[in-house]
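When time allows, look over one protein, given below as sequence and tokens. The question is which stretches look regular and which look disordered:
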Amino acid sequence: MAEKKATFEEQLSQLQQIVSHLEHGNVPLEEALTQYKDGIELARALQKKLTSAEKTLGSLIDDEGNEKQYEKATDDPSNNGGGNRGYGSDEKPLEE
């Protein structure tokens, strides 16, 4: 029977358990090293999944069915993530 791959949430929970266990400190050195290594592997796998999800969400499909790249929102509240167009701006969206 094929082994089920852990979900993102399950992997994140495993990582949190490892961190919590290591933070409490009463772990023999060999076990701590093994857990640290496992934690690093989990963190890398989670980061890879997040990067992949970000790329997927970063692409949009326009009305003609063409994929176009989504512009990442900035922390500047004056543009509401719409490039250089401020909130309430009369400028039309940028066309690619």
